[in-house]
Each structure stands twice: as structure tokens, then as C-alpha cells.
Amino acid sequence: MTPDPGSHAVTRPVTARRSGPLRGQIRAPGDKSVSHRALIFGLLACGTTEIAGLLEGADVLATARACAALGAKVDRLGEGRWRVEGVGVGALLAPTDTLDFGNSGTGARLMMGVVAGHPVTARFDGDASLRKRPMKRVLDPLALVGARVLESAEGGRLPLVLQGAREPLPVTYETPVPSAQVKSAVLLAGLAAPGETTVIEREATRDHTESMLAYFGADVRVVPEGAHGRRITLIGRPELRPAPVRVPADPSSAAFPLVAALLLKGSKLAIEGVMANPLRNGLVVTLREMGARIEVLDERREGGELVEDLVVQFSELAGVEVPAERAPSMIDEYPILAVAAANARGVTRMRGLSELKVKESDRLAAVADMLRAAGVEAQIEGDDLIVEGKGPGGVPGGGTVVTHMDHRIAMSGLVLGLATDAGMAVDDVAFIATSFPDFLPLMAGLGAEIG
Ligand code: S3P
Q: Any idea which positions bind 3-phosphoshikimate (predicted)?
């Protein structure tokens, strides 16, 4: 059915050294959030969904296998081109084997929502990183829908067995944390419930599930709620119609070569087709405030999402204060923003980062440790991260970054090393394959010294 997601058993240490200018034109891999959802909506639509530009990273491949285990026929037609023959809402098959989501919180949590609305029982598991991550944030609202956890590790963690509801109930649920995964799990469960399912979020998070629900023909309404939030209402039991999905380039992956180009003198890099959804572009907003030269060449709509081509040039950056309200629009980008901040003049304070503690690693601690290993002062004060910038090219380097099975820490550590005299070692780059399988050759092609 699908290529194997691959094994992370082999750790691969590498070193990034001071590099000359990065030059060239690239396209980042397909967006991870949209890729997971394209497969899941393919499973839930009746008929054939064609996907182009799918991210073929280990996380998304795990979701493809789970879709197959729940009854879809999933075929790879060519590079990034996939076909899913779905079963339709209400018609999932009970999986015979454990659904293994590897390193992926998104895959596991969204699929818990799908299973919760169906009369099937499934065992969910993942790697050592995913087994540490909180699942109660989705299991609590899914219990209101009628799903039951039959077994779990301590605190509702993986591995766990989830029994979906025979008669799922529509709920109104206010998410206690700003999380698109929690919101999406409730909406996906609500697809199988009669009547209206409503999710209220105090701070708007990425809206790909709502957009794709509408795109596949569901009746979904989104209205503002309070100063920064939204209220999303879905009418359950729609017949989802298959629709072709073209996955835009992932801004969270584009962020790594983008920041590398900002830090290396003489760089000029064009990045094509990057998703510019306002709920995802907090990094570009922040970097511009720091003085980054990022030019937008062509803004357009592709497959329902706003995308743009970017041209990035070496820039002298200055420290800024990043407000807490911006966190949901750049939640995965703080590790690489911290690398930019280390190379800026002055102090950068990033506020309200509590959610970083429950990502693929405790990213707040991992980022502070990474910077300290490079000779940069970094403090954690409550949920804030404070970085004392060394100025352009001023980070000494010479240490080792501990990645904790976290792809974004690995890529951030490598970009950090590119702008140091002494270089930076990164203890394990194997996990980069979860989201950006071609990162190392792509960076080498631009002139980065990694190896
Ligand atoms: C994602 C939501 C975010 C993000 C993750 C992808 C999604 O997680 O960090 O990489 O696709 O819905 P949370 O929902 O936990 O904030």
C-alpha cells in the first residue's frame, strides 16, 4: 500500500559549519497539517480523492497507513501524488492491528477524533516521544461525544485503546488550550453525530480542518468569538464528496532555509509556493519586525489556500518582543526564531510559550539548552523565553545540540551551526525525516556545509 515510514532506530550525528552565501531557488515540501487532513478527508469521503504535493515524511505516511487500516484504499501514484478511495462517514472498518503514529501528535489526535465517532475499537501507539505527550486534551472532549478509553498508559497517554461511540453525540466544546489538534478531533468526531457540533476557541488556531470540511461539502460556519477567537459550527452526518487536494509548501519547513539565508552574508534565496495562511505566518511577521528582508513576489490562491513566492536576503536583525497572542500562528517556528534571535543585536523576548513544553520534545527547555551549547545566553522565565542576541555572525558555537527525537530541534541546531565559527554538532538528524526528508541534500545544494 504505502512506503514504510522508516525506522528511527539509527541515530545519525552530523556537524554544521560556517558556510558561505546560500543561493538558489527551492520549493519546501508539502504542508504537514494539510497532508494529514487530505488523507483523513479522503478516508471519510465516499469515492476517490486525488492528492498532489503530499508530504511524504514519516508522520504523514503513518497517517496513510492508518487510513488504510480503517478501510480506505490508499495508493501512491507518483512523487507526492496519492489516491484515496474512501469509505464515507459512518462506514469505517475496525482495524485489526495497532495504529502506530510514530512521532506524530497530529496523526494520532486527529484519528482519535475520527475513531470516536464510529462504532469501532482501535489501539493507538507511537514512538517514545509520542508516548510522553498528553492525549487527555483530546480524550476529554471525545468522552463527551461518547467514546471510551478501555486501556491507556498513565495519565491517558499512549499506548491506548479507544472505543468509538455507537451513537455519537453532538457537543459544544470550548478548548482549554489553543490547539488545532483538539479542535480538529472534536470536529472530526462531530461529522458522525446528528445535529450541530460546535467548537469555541479563545485564540484562533490553524483552520485547515474547517476549510477542508467546507471544501469536501460539509455545512460549516465560522464566526469570530471575543477578541482573538472563533466559534466553529458543523452540521453532522454530511455526505463528504471527494475533491482534489493540491498541498501547498509548508511554511513551517520553509522556515529553516529562510532563516539560514537571513543569517549568512551574501545570501539570496527564492522559495516558491509557500502557504501564507494568516494563521500560520507569524514567523514572517516577526522576522520582518526584526529587520528581515523578505520580499513577496506573487501572492495567489492554490487549492483554496493563499500561497506566495518569497525572496529572502541576508539581513542584519535586531531583537524584538513577540507577543503571546501571536504564538498560535507560529507555534512550530519558535526553535528557528530563537536561532534568528541569537544572531540579532539586542534581546528578544518571546512570550506565552507554555504549549512548547508538550511538543515532540519540551521545546522550551530544548531550545534554551541548544542556544547555551552554542555560547548564547538564554533564560526561561515562566512561559517566556529570553535570548541575548550576539549580533550578526557573533554566535561562537562549538557545542552539541541534543535533539530529543525532535525534528525541528535538529533542523534549528543545524541552521544555528551554519553561522558559527566553531560549528555545531547535532546528536541525531534521523527525525528530520518526519517532516522534511530532503532537508540535508536541499541545504547542501544551496551551499550549506553540513556533514
Ligand atoms: C497541528 C497543530 C499544532 C502544531 C502541529 C500541527 C495541526 O499542534 O504544533 O505541528 O496540524 O493541527 P497543537 O494543536 O498541539 O497546537
A: 32-33, 37, 179, 181, 332, 359
Q: Domains of the chain (ranges plus CATH)?
A: 14-29+248-450 (3.65.10.10), 32-246 (3.65.10.10)
The DSSP element (H or E) to which 342 belongs, if any, is helix 334-342
- pTM (two decimals): 0.97
Predicted local distance difference test score (pLDDT) of residue 3: 42
Nearest partner of 407 among 255, 284, 202, 232, judged by Cα: 255
Q: Which residues of the chain have pLDDT under 50?
A: 2-9
Q: For position 33, what pLDDT does the model report?
A: 98
State which amino acid sits at residue 38.
A
Is 105 annotated to bind a ligand? Reply is yes
351 is an annotated ligand-binding site residue: no
382 Cβ contact partners less than 8 Å away, ≥ 6 residues apart: none
Exactly one of 332, 406, 421, 428 is catalytic; name it. 332
**Distance in Å, CA 327 to ligand 1 centroid:** 12
218-222, Cβ contacts within 8 angstroms, sequence gap of 24 or more: 218/191, 220/187
- Cβ-contact 405, 431 below 8 angstroms: yes
| CA R_g for the chain | 21
Q: Grid coordinates 534571535 are at which residue?
A: 341
CA dist., res. 153 & res. 161, Å (int): 10
Sheet strands (E) in 144-188: 148-153, 157-163, 172-174
